[in-house]
């Protein structure tokens, strides 16, 4: 079994994100699948987090939230995989990276609780350009983009929240 360091894995992700190479491995490469990530649909547990972090305050109506749990050093978001959820980080720490055209890993930011992931991808409808990797065990409140896209695009409270989230990311 091959074991890669985090930097090596990020570089492999970068190489595989190049269009000519990614097509070769699109269906066969297992590097980018989260083995330990799990979705939790237990309504009491979900509601506990939603209430604790006032997630309903960001929306005009209610949505079918669920939890996503990640182990330490898992890739949450990367350029080879469509981002399928908007995620509110409610426990743990996440590092955001970028890999430039020379393959150099550039640290962008480190986030703690109530950071939003998937907001840029929700707006742009493209694969992400950044990597989000867990530094600790992480729990997020998640919402499926695909299942809720139409409603979210008409939810003014959510769109205003999203605008603030994106502006905050530009200023940090």
Explain this structure to me?
It is a single chain. The chain is of the alpha+beta class and 172 residues long. The protein has helices at residues 6-17, 19-25, 43-52, 119-124, 145-153, 156-171; strands at 38-40, 66-70, 75-77, 85-91, 94-99, 105-111, 116-117, 131-134, 138-144. The chain has one domain (6-171): Jelly Rolls (Sandwich). Mean pLDDT is 83; it is low at 20-31. The longest helix has 16 residues, at 156-171.
**Looking at this structure, what is the CATH superfamily?**
Jelly Rolls
Span between termini? 39 Å
Strand content: 25-35%
The count of domains is 1
Q: Count up the helices.
A: 6
CATH class category name: Mainly Beta
Structural class: alpha+beta
The parts where pLDDT drops under 50 for at least 5 residues are 20-31
Round the Cα radius of gyration to an integer and report it. Answer: 16 Å
The outline comes out as: globular
What is the name of the CATH architecture? Sandwich
Give helix % range: 25-40%
Number of strands: 9
Q: What is the strand arrangement across the widest sheet? A: 1-2-9-4-7
In CATH terms, what is the fold-level topology? Jelly Rolls
């Amino acid at each position: 079994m091959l074991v890669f360091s985090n930097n090596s894995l990020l570089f492999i992700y970068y190489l595989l994100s190049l269009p000519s190479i990614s097509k070769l491995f699109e269906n066969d490469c297992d590097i980018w699948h989260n083995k330990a990530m799990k979705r939790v649909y237990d309504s009491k547990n979900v509601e506990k987090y939603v209430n604790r972090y006032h997630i309903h305050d960001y929306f005009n109506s209610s949505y079918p939230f669920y939890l996503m749990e990640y182990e330490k050093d898992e890739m949450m978001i990367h350029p080879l995989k469509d981002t399928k959820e908007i995620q509110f980080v409610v426990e743990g720490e996440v590092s955001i990276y970028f890999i430039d055209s020379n393959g150099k890993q550039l640290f962008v930011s480190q986030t703690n609780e109530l950071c939003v992931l998937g907001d840029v991808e929700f707006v742009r409808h493209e694969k992400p350009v950044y990597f989000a990797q867990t530094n600790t065990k992480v729990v997020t409140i998640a919402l499926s983009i695909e299942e809720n896209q139409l409603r979210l695009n008409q939810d003014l409270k959510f769109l205003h929240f999203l605008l603030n989230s994106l502006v905050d990311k530009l200023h940090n």
